[in-house]
Amino acid sequence: MPRIISPSFLSADFLHLGDAARTVNDSRAEWFHLDVMDGVFVPNISFGLPVVSALRKATDKVLDVHLMIVQPERYVADFKAAGADYLTVHVEASTHLHRTLQSIRDAGMRAGVALNPHTPVSAIEEVAALTDMVLIMSVNPGFGGQRFIASSLDKVSRAKDLLLRKNSPALIQVDGGVNADNAAQIFAAGADVLVAGNAVFGAEDPVAAIQQLIEA
Ligand code: DX5
Ligand code: ZN
Fold first, then answer.
1. Ligand 1 and 144: CB distance under 6 A
2. What is the pTM of this model?
3. Which of 92, 158, 180, 183 is most buried, most CB within 10 Å of its CB?
């Protein structure tokens, strides 16, 4: 089982994104998690394509782009051009999800599908074969620094069961409220990739915080 940490730049100092990128480059985190918000799908606006392009130039690590925007299908080609490796869209935001996931793969990226806390795992039943990663939201999306929703642990196990039943090699990512105290349990429930914003960039020593999450 891989144990991948994807630090969320939403919690980084936006005035010094280059420093944040260098910190993650020097750490054991293998991915960069970039949260794109449109103020419509979620009640917050974060950053968009120019920031993704800029960070692409700052790292060779995996760019893991989490779209919290309505009609994400409109921007698949743009995020490919910006350098995304994984492009994750929300089940709740894409009417023709099957086509959207296919188009992400056709564009040459890995396709992720995200589930809000209220959305059952069964929502991905018919798209498991088109999915490279399932993102279980363990907070309601929109903001960093929220508390982990405890029932997400069982949800991760149910997602794992579904993927096994479908013979899918898709990764499971957990996003929201992850920290050194709950990381071990989340990995044990079946997660492969943990996103951490506040637990990394809010720490005195982000590199050590990443190390702690991996070794949790
Ligand atoms: C929330 C975002 C998360 C967020 C996580 O909508 O999808 O990626 O940055 O932040 P923490 O780890 O602080 O909960
Ligand atoms: Zn995210």
1. yes
2. 0.98
3. 183
